[in-house]
Amino acid sequence: MKWDEFFVTGDPLIYGADVSIGLTVIGLLFYLTYFKKWQWLWKEWLTTVDHKKLGIMYIASAVLMLFRGGVDALLMRTQLAVPDAKFLDAQHYNEIFTTHGTIMIIFMAMPFLIGLINVVIPLQIGARDVAFPYLNAVSFWTFFIGAMLFNISFVIGGSPSAGWTAYMPLAGNELSPGPGQNYYLLGLQIAGIGTLLTGINFLVTILKMRAPGMTLFRMPMFTWSALITMVIIVFAFPILTVALALMTFDRLFGAHFFTLQGAGMDMLWANLFWLWGHPEVYIVILPAFGMFSEIISTFARKVLFGYKAMVWAMVLIAAYSFLVWVHHFFTMGSGAAVNTAFSISTMLIGIPTGIKIFNWLFTMYKGKISFTTPMLWALGFIVNFVVGGVTGVMLAMAAADYQYHNTYFLVSHFHYVLIAGTVFGCFAGLVFWYPKMFGYKLNERIGKWVFWLFMIGFNVCFFPQYFLGLDGMPRRVYTYSAASGWGDLNMVSTVGAFLMGIGFLALVYNIYYSFRYSERENTGDSWGLGRTLEWATTSAVPPHYNFAVTPTVEGLDPVVAIRNDKKEVTPKLADIKPIHMPDNSGVPFVMASFFFVAGFGLVFEWYWMGIVGLIGVFITLIIRSFDKNEGYYVSVDEIKETERITV
Amino acid sequence: MAHAEVHDHNTPLEYQSETGRLNILGFWIFLGAEIALFSTLFATYLVLMYRTADGPTPHELFELKGVLIETFLLLTSSFTCGIAIHEMRKRNRKGLFVWMIITLLLGAGFLGYEIYEFVTYVHEGAALGTSAFWSGFFVIVGTHGLHVTMGIAWITLILIQVARRGLTPQTSAKVFISSLYWHFLDVVWIFIFTAVYLTGMVLHNG
To answer: Where is the Heme-copper oxidase subunit III family profile domain positioned along the sequence (chain B) (predicted)?
Structure first.
């Protein structure tokens, strides 16, 4: 292979990316060396098994991926702003919409939510850590390495270009030659390992490590949503694992699962992909529902309306999520009976979702609402998500779907549910729990600017796309003629997209500004309205152990009870005992690095390299297995110091 | 991660440490994920059942004898694995070793027959790339075979740990978990025996 086949060449945008990546890496290396931060980086972050730090790393990576996916989006919107634009060529455009979709779902939305889950859930249930802290680190690093492997594709070897759905035979060797599609297969496969492990880890954590007295129906709604999400992950991700493996066999070893030759079946891919892919959209929406429930109840100062109905609604949504996948290809010849069945099952999901919407509204009814930034995101969510949901029901009508499938109507629909649901949820959760992570709030005034810029930009961008879709503009086209009459609405849409970009920059500025100027906190209940256990410990949460003394729970919203009864929250000296915690470990990072070697080798079909990487993975597994990993004890003196107990 | 130890002699060793209990539950959930994984492979195999293109059909190549021997070896190994755990619970380390090693040998015998079977098929013109059907066949049976291989390697490593450290709540939890895995592979094989081999020989007759 020649160098110019290895590196992507010939496109000024790519050269620009090369230069910026090079400068960033040099800058980072310089910073770490000049300020002698290497040891700090290794000890505090790369080897950590602390759920809060892993959560922060998840969120930081997700914000980085939001930037990458967002730049992809802006490139697409720039190309589509006017008819017959020459900004991107067709192949480049295909690569960009493929990476945009994949990155936003797999490497932005899911990790952002899993990051918040990591930070918050153990605190909400009064646990010292997750059930398997070491495994948690493995989860993060495999996700991170999978994401990095996927991301380098656009400068090394070329990006995948068959869409995030990677439909066969388009994603096969004949129509997608080169390493691009292999990056997709292996990047997702490696990251998927981490997701499955997270699913197992948090199921056990939530089922087994709740504080005394916290029965299942006393769990906070975010914990409930995480529990149900983890069940979906455990049953849906193996399907993706198999589907990706089968396509890898097709592309690398000449198998015939989805090919046109050898009696393969391309529709089998579509079925397997969406059998995972549809539950996946609930993996990224249910935790957001959970967060909005917490936020709305907190800032309306009321107990969540219809708690049990909310739980059962999520259980139903999770069950239905596995039964509707065919609605992603109503027009691909399944026949009237099959389409009818899937049309009805799809619409059924609207019922539990509607129940949740009404419960949020009833929670606010007669509540004393504080319009904080997280609450604004929650209110924006309700309005916009309903727009997305209603258009979803329109799409669910199989007969009508023949009219607007594969148009911008669909594009608009899923952005309305995914951005208004998941992205607003991530922003809301980030602002809400920021003090738990860093010990200070994000600035509220800038936060509201972020909200309005993003919210208005979002609607300006995507609302016109409903009409573009009804006017017949197909999705995934890289240009259109002036005669189509789609030019004006596309221009509006592009303006909205850039407004969202400005909103994102404002968020980044807010993070910087608050780091410099926000008032540091010394109480745990940052908003003064907290209801669940995470607000009963200090902000930021002490690095080692979460709670000096494991709390006891007597009902829903334990912190409200503490506040109302004016109970003393500071733990009594006599109750403090040494706390057992797990040791840090560099093995997860090393293991993930070997996964990178293996994945990179397989992408280019350099099998020796793939084998070296996999052997490395197995060696790290064995090292871990023989490690006695006994952990250490946090001493009473250290706890006293951290909790500022002076007696 | 608290270390609440239970010192009741009626509690099996592997359930005595908190870590052991958590790991066992976690592994049960992992097996749930494995069921989803194999279900997907079974669905794939059954969908591709008649898609043999111009290649050989399963009816032409499958032979009952080899499959029955494999089945016998693997089912017996599950039984001996059960005895090994029984010995472990009686704190009989030697018994655990003897029966586990028999288990591993039976597993290795199973693998040997499977590899022989695969080589035979390839010689008879049925490889991974012959047709969709054979892709499905090699991947589902091969995935199970890979699991058996990993199981043998894993249990061997755990036995080394038991030999070095003795039967503690930690090592016994590892042994117990690996035995769950081994029984699971046996269950999957029963489905493979039915859905792949019997179905391939009987239903694929015309």
So the answer is: 25-201
